[in-house]
Amino acid sequence: MFCAVLPSTCKRKASRAQRGIATLVLVGGIVGLVLKRSLVAEVIDELGSLRASAAFLLIGLVCVHRCLNALLHRAATPGVSFRRMLMASESYSGASHSFAGGSGVGTALRVAMYRSWGVDGLGITTSLVASSVFPSFAMWTLGGAYTLPLVLSGGANRNELVVGLASIAFLGGPVLFWAFLLRHPSAVRLVEALLGRLENKVGRVRSRRLREFGQRGTSHATRNLHVVRDRARKLVRKNGLFLLAAAIGSQVMLSLVLVASAWALAPDVGLPIVALVRTFAMLRVLSSFVPVPGGIGIVDVGLVTALEGAGLTSAAAVAAVALYRALTFVLPLLSGPLCALHWWRTDGRRQVVETDATPKRHLGLVVEPVAA
């Protein structure tokens, strides 16, 4: 809803920036593989030594993580079954991990799925906002929970100090904003005024584009903002704690997958689990500032360094991070398209096709045919 009023040029520039950063990371990874051919061979040997029991444990942890994600989306979308939300969650993850800017494709796919399952437009808006806000809250909550005790005791290093203070700022600010928006009706009028100014800036361009296609548009970006607020308040009151718990559990499971990957490849090394989980949370917070899908290439360097500091060899550390990435990043690339294909065969084809005379919504505009 809020992104609907942003100029398309801003979106294109952001997408180009993401693709540029992702390309640099990919080229750097390829160059690193060429220069470190001997290390690659050692990593392959380490992965070949993975035991079957450890592999089953890792797969189980990843399944729990994916189920927690689906539970998060289901709590944000009442009335939809867990099976369908698991399908939507996997499809979104597969699309968002595929390429830079893929989260937009994944969101569009989720919207199409929700519509085919009977969720109305306002319910979709509320679900998308809740399923985006609560994971961010969970990430900042964990970053602060792991680092603030060290900051208060005076034993934090520079990175821990930055993450601790950033967690306070980036968690406290949004919490106050959403609390004010949900509790005070006057906040809705402020948001409406802001959206109105943004709409005025881009309205003339969109109106001209609609006229080129023989259509007329009427802005509806803020008409139902009060209804969305009321639905969001009911959702937070009913499922707010569950949403936050599912988001925190999903983040914790990610860190446990990393620790389990390192343990599976180096069972004789006494891993400092608390320190590794804290480092993982810190890297997740820091990688949120880098517009690369999943923070790939950015988080990995820090994880390898942390595992080496925990006592693993370079080959074992790289193998553990590669195994973690294969389970949490590459796996949705396989399950996502399968879930999307299953949805298309079962529900997608049965969607009612709108006729030319039916009003259609495009980017916050209700588009109707012009009378002859």
The major sheet is characterized as: 3 strands, antiparallel
Return the string of H and E elements.
Answer: HHHHHHHHEHHHHEE
Rg, rounded, reads 23 Å
SS strand fraction: under 5%
Number of discrete helical segments? 12
Describe this structure in words.
With 372 residues, the chain is mainly alpha-helical. The protein has twelve helices and three strands; from the N terminus they run ααααααααβααααββ. The protein has helices at 8-35, 37-48, 52-76, 82-96, 102-116, 121-153, 158-183, 185-212, 225-265, 273-287, 299-309, 314-346; strands spanning 215-219, 360-362, 365-369. A three-stranded antiparallel β-sheet has the order 1-3-2, covered by helices on one side. A hairpin with a 2-residue loop joins β2 (360-362) and β3. α3 packs antiparallel against α9. The radius of gyration is 23 Å and the shape is globular. The two termini are 31 Å apart.
Which key features would you list for this structure?
372 residues; mainly alpha; 3 strands; three-stranded antiparallel beta sheet; disordered C terminus; disordered N terminus; 3% strand
Concise structural overview:
By secondary structure, the protein is mainly α. The protein is built from 12 helices and 3 strands.
